[in-house]
TrEMBL record, chain A:
This is Serine/threonine-protein phosphatase 2A 55 kDa regulatory subunit B. GO terms for cellular component: protein phosphatase type 2A complex. Belongs to the phosphatase 2A regulatory subunit B family. PP2A consists of a common heterodimeric core enzyme, composed of a 36 kDa catalytic subunit (subunit C) and a 65 kDa constant regulatory subunit (PR65 or subunit A), that associates with a variety of regulatory subunits. The gene is ppp2r2ab. It comes from the Eukaryota. It comes from Oncorhynchus tshawytscha. Keywords: Repeat, WD repeat.
């Protein structure tokens, strides 16, 4: 069974949860990004403390459809350290904003991880053999006096316990004045882009001391700044095409063949505002927090505060589909503005065959929208629902006062429990959902 | 109208909404305005101000101020005076205090960037951008000609402090100037100008005077 099946066909079951159990969350443990690699065998998370943890799916049971394999820790390393910018007297946070995997070319795995200022290319490689039998060195490393050597031997490789090593191969620094919010690897397998609030740069994966600026929306007079870049992504197949979203709810598609500096877009995607929904907070909630191309490259999805929108790349005037994530919050915007929740940046993701999209919400709820079946479901990531293979029960939020059994009223929602980061396995119905400091893995129920 | 700024504490959502619903629109707007100013202040106090958030807040603030102005506040020009030769500034240009606030919030130093620009094609802009990269220190100095055209009083001409009831604002401790960045200093004082009574406003004017002298070398 592939990644097909809508949300009503699929019954989602708890599989695993990673992270500390206690409610007292250490700031460094807050998960800030989640990403499957291209095969889905590896699952990477980044956290506020600058660490990357990679989980690997055990492959032994793959042939048995009854039980899906589990993800276990494969490698853990410190990607970024806190830095201090002496010129501006500012601390640079070590929080990992994004991780993106490179397509696998050889035995090793490569990923890009970035904090606010610096992107790093990490190589993750396995070592399961080591050379033994040196002539001038003991096994423990002590040197042997050459005068005592009477016979020579050729060192041989002998098996050892598997060791996974992560080493930084490239550091791409000093190219961003503002905070990096996105990185995206090009389908040409040679370049990638990095985007901050005002600029987008194009890099070659091998070259660290130079990058090309391809978008610059910084006005000559900073007093005129009213819009920032919020996310950017390369097209999955067309290596000359990328999009970037803005804090005003627009998406610009750019073609790098048109000009060196892509300040002029090829296409501008924007939906006219619904005048009946106008409020003080209209602009804030229209700010796009994430943009993702579909796997087939024909659509893109955007996430703003209250909704998910699917755009056909051939139609700029309005999205082809709009899904309300938590419309019951529309009447609560003032409170959400007051407690800063209105600035939360939710991400979104596609399933493998682009039939279902997923995004997070509050109270550790997350939502799935089946595009073909026109159905949606709300599920919860919590320890209560975490018995092995336990089927997740759909949740419902009651917007008005007439709360039914098992429903939750809006006022009971916990706005500290937010799911900002979710990821979907590229082929299978396996999803990774990050609460504040825990990573939940859910799978579809296989009969 | 008192308000609380929640910080990650689970609290009832309905408080703010209940307050909002009871109020007539102008007071609702005032509440949001107060929240906006408070958030912009705390944005500045953070170790790492978020440009994204600052821009959203500044836009909201500007929108509310424009609305209040259009509704028959004192008919002050939204724009500073320019010399007659220059074309008139468009009316949606942010008023100077907001602009100065935004610009100092958003001020960044480009000198560190090693980013290279590809050779510019025909029709692209001149070296203005590369000048920013090389020399851009404080944003405000890029517009010094704009400042020299102004009389100091003009900057504050369109602030009508009667619109802001001092009792509506919690007493905001003035954060000590951060570093030696002139823009940072200016920002703190501009914020003070918003939210304090006229006596401290006068004090701020004197300080601003001093800063202006440094920047404009007049």
């Amino acid at each position: 069974m592939g990644a097909g099946g809508g949300s009503n066909d699929v019954q989602w079951c708890f599989s695993q949860v990673k992270g500390a159990i206690d409610d007292d969350v250490a700031e460094a443990d807050i998960i800030s990004t989640v990403e499957f690699n291209h095969s889905g065998e590896l699952l990477a998370t980044g956290d506020k403390g600058g660490r990357v943890v990679i989980f690997q799916q055990e492959m032994e049971n793959k042939s048995q459809p009854q039980c899906r394999s589990e993800y276990n820790v494969y490698s853990t390393f410190q990607s970024h350290e806190p830095e201090f910018d002496y010129l501006k007297s500012l601390e640079i946070e070590e929080k990992i904003n994004k991780i993106r995997w490179l397509p696998q070319k050889n035995a090793a795995q490569f990923l890009l991880s970035t904090n606010d200022k610096t992107i790093k290319l990490w190589k993750i490689s396995e070592r399961d053999k080591r050379p033994e039998g040196y002539n001038l060195k003991e096994e423990d490393g002590r040197y042997i006096d050459p005068n005592t050597v009477t016979a020579l031997r050729v060192p041989v490789f002998r098996p050892m316990d598997l060791m996974v090593e992560a080493s930084p191969r490239r550091v791409f620094a000093n190219a961003h004045t503002y905070h990096i919010n996105s990185i995206s690897i090009n389908s040409d397998h040679e370049t990638y882009l990095s985007a901050d609030d005002l600029r987008i740069n194009l890099w070659h994966q091998e070259i660290t001391d130079r990058s090309f600026n391809i978008v610059d929306i910084k006005p000559a007079n900073m007093e005129e700044l009213t819009e920032v870049i919020t996310a950017a992504e390369f097209h999955p197949h067309q290596c000359n095409t990328f999009v970037y979203s803005s804090s005003k709810g627009t998406i610009r598609l750019c073609d790098m063949r048109a000009s060196a500096l892509c300040d002029t877009h090829s296409k501008l995607f924007e939906e006219p505002e619904d005048p009946s929904n106008r409020s003080f907070f209209s602009e804030i909630i229209s700010s796009i927090s994430d943009v993702k191309f579909s796997h087939n490259g024909r659509y893109m999805m955007t996430r703003d505060y209250l909704s998910v929108k699917i755009w056909d790349l051939n139609m700029e005037s309005r999205p082809v589909e709009t899904y309300q994530v938590h419309e019951y919050l529309r009447n609560k915007l003032c409170s959400l503005y007051e407690n800063d929740c209105i600035f939360d940046k939710f991400e979104c993701c596609w399933n493998g065959n682009d039939s279902v999209v997923m995004t997070g919400s509050y109270n550790n709820f997350f939502r799935m929208f089946d595009r073909g079946q026109r159905r949606d479901v709300t599920l919860e990531a919590s320890r209560e629902g975490s018995k092995p293979q336990q089927v997740l029960k759909p949740r419902k939020v009651c917007a008005d006062g007439k709360r039914k059994k098992d429903e939750i009223s809006v006022d009971s929602l916990d706005f500290n429990k937010k799911i900002l980061h979710t990821a979907w396995h590229p082929q299978d119905n396996v999803i990774a959902v990050a609460t504040t400091n825990n990573l939940y893995i859910f799978q579809d129920k296989v009969n | 109208m008192r308000y609380m700024v929640g910080r990650g504490v689970k609290r009832k959502l309905s408080d703010c909404e209940d307050q909002m619903l009871d109020l007539p629109y102008p007071q609702q707007r005032q509440l949001v305005l107060n929240l906006c100013l408070d958030k912009l202040q705390s944005c500045q106090r953070r170790a790492e101000p978020s440009l994204h958030r600052s821009v959203l807040l500044a836009n909201t603030l500007r929108q509310i101020q424009q609305e209040m102005r259009q509704e028959g506040g004192p008919p002050a020009p939204a724009t500073p005076h320019h010399s007659p030769d220059l074309p008139p500034v468009p009316s949606d240009r942010p008023s100077t205090p907001v602009a100065a606030l935004s610009s100092s919030l958003l001020c960044e130093d480009d000198v560190q960037s090693t980013c290279t620009e590809l050779p510019k094609g025909p029709g692209s802009e001149d070296g203005g951008k590369s000048q920013d990269l090389l020399f851009g220190s404080f944003e405000i100095t890029n517009s010094t000609s704009y400042l020299t055209d102004l009389q100091l009083d003009d900057i504050f001409e369109d602030i009508d402090t009667s619109m802001y009831d001092p009792s509506d604002f919690s007493v905001l401790a003035c954060p000590p100037p951060r570093g030696s960045s002139g823009a940072s200093l200016g920002n703190d004082y501009n914020l003070k100008a918003f939210s304090t009574s006229s006596s401290t406003l006068q004090m701020c004017l004197n300080d601003l005077d001093h800063i202006m002298e440094i920047l404009v070398r007049s």
